[in-house]
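<instruction>
Derive structure tokens from the sequence
<data>
Labelled lines for chain and fold:
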Amino acid sequence: STTDIQQGLVAAGLTDFFEVRVSYEDTPSMRRKPAPDQYENALKRLALSPLQCVTFEDTESGIAAATAAEIRAVAMPNGLTVGHDFAGAVLVIKPGEKKSASDIMSRLAA
């Protein structure tokens, strides 16, 4: 939801780094995940190709949506989603596991 997105960005101190935020609440005609609509909407609004992007998701349906939009996805499951199938993710960062930005970037480049 829009509220969840905003709260997450505030908690991480990242609000100034995101030009576009897309939630199913923003455009009722968009299908919800695992459909790729939200990602395709963001790509269009940002005028970017999927190869220029990476997403961080905490659910199986989020990973499915990203990969359907041909965007590389990093899974960051939480306590409720740790048992989901994240096979489509480029990388899975388990709860409590720490990865540096360079570790993530080198995995994405592989």
Observations:
- The helical segments are 2-12, 37-46, 60-68, 101-109.
